[in-house]
Amino acid sequence: MFKQVYLLLFVFVVSCSNNPQKLTLANDEFPTLEFSDELNHKVKSTKITTQHKSNELSLKVKSKNLCFKIKVLKNGNLFSKKQFRLFPVKDSLEFKQYANHDLFQKIIDRESLLGLKSKFVNVKAGGNTDCFFFQEALEKTLIESSESREGILFTYTTELSVKHQPKKTGNSSKTLKERIDQWKKGLLNTSCLFDVEKTGKYLALYEGFNMQNTKLAYYLNPVSNLIEPLSYVSKKKHDQLYKQLLGDSLIKAEIQFIQNEYRQNRTIHSTLSKHKLFVFLTALNWNSKDAVTSTILNKNPCLNNTYKQYLNEHEGVFTLKSDFCTLKEPLLIPKGGKFVLNKGQKIDLINGAFIISYSPLELAGSDAKPVSISSSDSTGKGLHVIQAKTNSTLKHVVFNQLNSLNHHDWTLPSAVTFYESPVNITHCKFMHSQAEDAINVFRSTFTFENSTISNSFSDAFDADFSSGVIKKCRFINSGNDGVDVSGSNIQVTESEFVNIEDKAISAGEKSTVMSENLIIRTCSQAFTAKDLSTVSVLNSTVKESEVVYLAFQKKHIYGGGKIISQGVSCENFKEISLIEKGSSLVLEGKKQHNYTDNVMKYLYGKEYGKKQGGDFQKTNVKKF
To answer: Which end of the chain has fewer CB within 10 Å, C or N?
Structure first.
């Protein structure tokens, strides 16, 4: 039936383009949703139910001109989404447009750009089965499922309209509006507001796929502090930002550069050729035919750039003018080079100074003469490597008394950051961090070996949507977690965790952690797996800790966690495990069946661990 339906639809598209036919067949390969009542445009708002994964879900439905806006009530989710829209597929032309949109989203996902999850679904209600196009809404879970940090989502028709703004971000939307107004007036460079590479690539694909009946939305990436586009189904006209972007020389050149690459390598066709909707792919429209070069390779950052006052530059290599440097202002390393520090060189960040590098680092100290980046007045706002792309190396480097970045409307939670910047770290020390994370690796690969993080105000090591290895490291006196990972795949071996106020190892958002030969002492919680994460533990020792194993669901769009433990010695603990139903613990090959309801009611300072929010007050974990 599946192939027959496709054949019928394909005939409609080819021979009936001027006379659309109503679709009456539902495809067996599309997922099916069975609703308690029909979706009716005559009813503006109603509540219905549906069965999903053996659970009955309550849905709130609002009728709009083109679609039905649906919100899953309480703590449920549908296809891991809390809010979504369903568009009736009325005829073969609409089917083709939605199919093209679905294929476009697949390529966007492959290119690690921000996109909305979409698919065709069958909807059964009132004895009828109809075809609909499912698309997630512009809300928080969109960002979480796209391996991005929560930031402002907005649209822009004639003015900025915020669709989602993170809590406790104050006037950030007002500041964003001011930046956009400056750019529209020509007072702010495009590369200071938009991620030119990602925007150029997205618009190159958007134009190439001829995305009809869609509209752009935008995401302010809080890590880069730059805007990235995305698109959603809409009959509305394109906004002012989109029109101005297409006329911007920097963006236009990047679009041409990317489209030439796609035309030459034909990777889109090869990627989509086995997709079930490939036959509905529209002819790709690559306008540019002239050879062009990307214009962003040597663009400088957009804050006041004073690096020439402190650094020498030779053939793209940036080095200190003197072995000891006191920075009283931001130091910005442009893209396209390398920042090098050698044995014994020291940087003191005072008066709120910080370092932002868009180029990779080569920090090469020695045991006797380490490289030092510190803040003698404790106001230094850290070292942050942003989209350097190529590998950084840090060897024998000491980071001391650094805080997180907070500069105008740009905030980062970590004292040391590697965002979309691979890094190898060995024989380094991170001491007395005053930030939420002593180090944060985000969307990057890494190695972290023979290094120590001590006396951290909050988390020691944080990895988001990254992969890497932690080996022969020590985490001592952490004000929150030792190793905290989200959406990541890591190995932790031959390492020690001492006096961790919350979790020694915490895995969330579909993470996988393989750990072996660990020593964990005086920690509140040893191993935590939540939100479809798996933690495996081999041949380790846990002493004087409150809870050894925890597995539960924290976020409604995920599920429980899983822990597999083999050869782990536990001494002097309060609870061996707190395992929620829907999660699992396997000890020595045997699944445990002692479950605890609502594990979270015991955590985050309520009975175990560290209280979330407010001011952290350092306390020692109780010994037993």
So the answer is: N
Q: Please, is 101 exposed, middle or buried when counting C-beta atoms within 10 Å of its C-beta (0-12, 13-18, 19+)?
A: buried
Cβ count near 411 (within 10 Å): 15
Question: Using one digit for the tens of pLDDT, what is the confidence trace for 18-50?
Answer: 444 444 444 556 888 888 888 887 778 888 888
Render 127-151 in DSSP notation, one character per residue: TEEEEEEEEE-SSHHHHHTTT----
Cα–Cα distances (Å) from 245 to 34, 227, 286, in that order, read: 42, 12, 17
Residues 104-144 have pLDDT tens digits of 999 999 899 999 999 999 998 888 888 999 999 998 888 88
Edge to edge, the sheet with strand 226-233 lists 160-164, 152-156, 214-221, 226-233
Under 8 Å between Cβ of 552 and 578: yes
Cβ contacts of 178 within 8 Å, gap of 6 or more: none
**Does residue 375 register a pLDDT over 70?**
yes
Identify any residues that bridge with 507 across adjacent strands, giving them in sequence order. 485, 529
The 3 state secondary structure assigned to 456-524 is ECCEEEEEECCEEEEECCEEEEECCCCEEEECCEEEEECCEEEEECCEEEEEECCCEEEEECCEEECCC
Q: How many CB atoms lie within 10 A of CB 420?
A: 17
Rounded to two decimals, what is the model's pTM?
0.89
Q: How many CB atoms lie within 10 A of CB 3?
A: 9
Instruction: Report how far residue 24's alpha carbon sits from residue 250's, in angstroms, rounded to the nearest whole number.
Output: 47
DSSP one-letter string for 426-437: ES-EEES--SSE
Beta strands in 137-244 (DSSP E): 152-156, 160-164, 214-221, 226-233
Angle at 44 between CA 38 and CA 45, to 5 degrees: 75
Query: Looking at residues 488-501, what average pLDDT do you find?
Result: 97
Residue 414 has pLDDT above 90, yes or no: yes
Instruction: Give backbone dihedrals phi and psi of 262, rounded to 5 degrees, phi first.
Output: -65, -40
Question: Which alpha helices (H) appear in 19-74, and where do they start and end?
Answer: none
Contacts of 325 (CB under 8 A, 6+ apart): 310, 345, 346, 347, 348
Whether the pLDDT of residue 296 is over 60: the answer is no
Instruction: Give the DSSP letter of residue 301.
Output: P
CA distances from 563 to 89, 530, 573 (A): 44, 9, 18
Per the listing, tokens 């200071």 go with 192
Looking only at the bridges linking them, the beta strands covering 414-419 and 437-442 are parallel
Structure tokens at 166: 């993170």
Which of 65-69, 168-172, 310-314 has maximum average pLDDT? 310-314
Strand pairing of 452-456 and 311-314? unpaired
Rounded CA separation 196/189 (Å):
11
Instruction: State both tokens at 64.
Output: 């709009």
Q: Which of 498, 418, 488 is nearest to 147 (CA)?
A: 488
Distances (CA, A) of 449 to 326, 424, 472, 550: 29, 8, 6, 26
pLDDT of residue 578: 95
Token digits of residue 575: 């609870």
Angstrom distance (rounded) from CA 20 to CA 178: 46
For residue 297, pLDDT over 70 is answered with no
Nearest partner of 235 among 29, 65, 411, judged by Cα: 65
Query: Would you give the distance in Å from CA 358 to the centre of its chain?
Result: 19
Average pLDDT of the chain is 87
Neighbours of 287 (CB within 10 A): 11
State the Cα–Cα distance between residues 482 and 499, nearest whole angstrom: 9
